[in-house]
Amino acid sequence: MPMPTHPVLDWSRSAAHLRRSHIVTTSPRSDEDGHYPCVLTRGSGARVYDLDGNAYLDLTGSFGSVLIGHAEPAVVQAVTDVLTEGNLFYTGASPRRLALTERLLSWFPWAEQAVFYRTGSCAVSAAARLAQHATGRRRVLSSGYHGWHDWHLEAVPEAKPKMFESYATEFHNDLAVYRSWLDLHGEDVAAVVVTPEPHRFDAAHYQELSKGAKEHGCLFIVDEVKTAVRAGAGGFSARVGIEPDAVTVSKGLGNGHSVSAVVGRRQITQELSEAHVWSTYQNEQVGFAAALASLDFLERHDVAAVTARSGETVRQGVLDLFAEHGLPVAAPAWGSMFELDFDATDEGLAELLEAALLRHGIFCDTGDDFNMMFHIAGHTDELLERFAAALGDL
b/e map of 35-68 (b: 16 or more CB within 10 Å)? Predict the structure, then answer.
């Protein structure tokens, strides 16, 4: 019998762990549903390691939240310093919070205030409610994914949104639907909340969305949970020439530590007390410290530019490899993120490729974005060699 050509990895400890986990905890996400045979336990730089000791180059960046690299020493030291001093205090106006606010306002010079949270979902939900209080209107027009909260479930059909009353209407980046809704119901719309899809729509698209909101007296909010920090100073909004009323910021801000923000004009953020969008743990010092250390690193090393270059190098290399194997796979991209589009290929290729990549030491999610981290830039040759080997196993 011929020997298999692909590596055989031992995932026995991970398998035992998953069997026990399924008895006491459940999740639809990839850590518990059996999608991956391994359980990740630690990371360093561009690599992650599983319970069985196997190492992988990480192309997920933990859903894009780790932008520099895992366990970046400067961020770890900042967080460690907090833990020796205490993490949560009754008065929220801490020096670290003020320092982070001033840094974010320097990134978004049109903004006047910042309000902090722990997750992207919380920040976007808070922005929507703040807009309602600022305008006295109830409806929200939405495009893109904004998290798990009830108001947004119309955009997530599998969540059975009819179980919940929603004040949001999804227009799916369709400008005709957008204009029609504003013309008919604009006086009831508090805010337009848009998640950028920069690899699918150009600057003119977002300028038109911003213009439409302004004409109807609606606040324009850009959900930059994923793009703000990856784009560098000014975020995606600056790249397309718009100044929204607020942006939401999270992934990459704390390099994997939980912190998010609504950064906006005083008109929207001053409604904080009336809107009741605050909680005990939004004043944790760990998130502020991680964000300040991350921003120092991002600016000093021009991470946005480095990850954009490495992203294009990897994307083009992957496209060349697909072409060599006669596989019609596209890779729409923006900066340090790209997707793999398998629509023109045989069904099941995405899953087969993901499994082959895992065996060859690349951890990715072929159904989501490939996210470049800063430290991946030093491993692009190795990454493409492993990718080539995985394609050779298909």
Answer: ebbbbbeebebbbbbbbbebebbbbbbbbbbbbb
